[in-house]
Amino acid sequence: MAIVYRPGRIRGIEVLSCTDPFEFQPHIHDRYVVWLNTEGGEHFHVCGSSDILSPGSISVIEPGVVHANRPCTETNRHLRSFYIEPGFFENLSEQIGAQPSAGYEFRLDPMNDKQLWTQLALLHELMLGDVPDLELSSRVVRVFGDFLERHGHLGNVPRKEGLPDIRIDRVIESFHEGFEDPVSLESLAEIAGCTQYHLIRLFKEAKGMTPHAYLMQIRLENARRMLEKGGSILDSALDSGFSDQSHLTRAFRKRYGLTPGAYRRSI
């Protein structure tokens, strides 16, 4: 059993292969996640609802959306994920003829598309292996081009229910601008223009976790990116707002199922 993170040779895509029974607690990504299982089912919770991702189905999680997942059984699991930069989909949607202003949006519930599921599973395996760059890039464009055309709602983006809370948006923007700095609940409440009590309640309603927990996810994603680019564990910790290397190591293992050192070796 193993958890393997591997930067893809295709710019803007990283892959995860997980056969370990590790439970991913509530977390976020700074990229789109296209994920599927080729063995066993996956319980997942997102946006206040729960479902099971069964073999043959595909799911998409948008950047910044809080979600959690665990295997249905501890002995039969192969979770395969593609972590995709938003710019990759934007560029690809233009390549397949969509107007840049049209946009795209994916449904939250699992998509039952066995043909595309088979193509994605094969592509995932190839990205973990060693195939010629031209063959791999051609397959990526073809498979994800089909994915956008079938499930991206190109040019017909449905309106999301409800209105975004600008107060929460301001707080999250401040997180991204200074995630490495100490933050107080009082200062966040001032940014949001509400009381500390109401900030916590509003944040939990909007994102499913406290402001501190959400900030921790942003810091972890930044540390992971630094490690991916060859940064040291200590520098990745301090530059991402962690007090020391041990603090990062504990949080990183809980979030990704690996220590920072194991993650570096994996990639």
Overall description:
This protein is α+β, with helices and mostly antiparallel strands and 267 residues long. It folds into 2 domains: 3-151, Jelly Rolls (Sandwich); 166-266, Orthogonal Bundle (Arc Repressor Mutant, subunit A). It has helices spanning 86-95, 114-128, 133-151, 166-177, 185-192, 196-207, 211-228, 233-239, 245-256, 260-266, and strands spanning 3-7, 13-18, 24-27, 32-39, 42-46, 49-53, 57-61, 67-71, 78-84, 111-112. The strands form 2 sheets. Strands 1-2-9-4-7-10 form a 6-stranded antiparallel beta sheet. α2 runs antiparallel to α3 and α7 packs across α9 (245-256). The longest helix has 19 residues, at 133-151. Mean pLDDT is 88; it is low at 156-163.
What topology does this entry show?
Elements: E1 3-7, E2 13-18, E3 24-27, E4 32-39, E5 42-46, E6 49-53, E7 57-61, E8 67-71, E9 78-84, H1 86-95, E10 111-112, H2 114-128, H3 133-151, H4 166-177, H5 185-192, H6 196-207, H7 211-228, H8 233-239, H9 245-256, H10 260-266
Helix pairs in contact: 2-3, 4-5, 4-7, 7-8, 7-9, 8-9
Keywords: Activator, DNA-binding, Transcription, Transcription regulation
Protein name: AraC family transcriptional regulator
Domain HTH araC/xylS-type: 169-266
